Here is the input.
Amino acid sequence: MLIYIFIACDRLDEKQEKQLKQNLPALQAALQTYVEANEANRAELINDCTSDDCEDWQLGISQPVKKHTHLAPAVNLFNGLAQQYDIDCEVGSIEDGEREPVSYFGKHEGQGDAFLIAQYLGL
Here is the structure.
């Protein structure tokens, strides 16, 4: 199954948007580092942050997974980013190019759990 995990860039207040824009280079660098370290797992960076409006951004990763243990490194990365940068995350599946969100986690939504997310995804 192909999954994605995004940094939630929509429904942010003005302060959160400003903070996200300030932290964008650090977030992009952390995600790029993860993707490079997980090339064997076919992790890919999703980095579409060209719009002036954060709500249009898509920033995160996609990666094929077969079981919850494959999710753990990515979920742990995003949990850490959520705490460090005061963000939330969206996780879901990609099928036929369409993204289907299944769960949200992060600073405000609560820590993500790879086992539970795998169950939501039907792994």
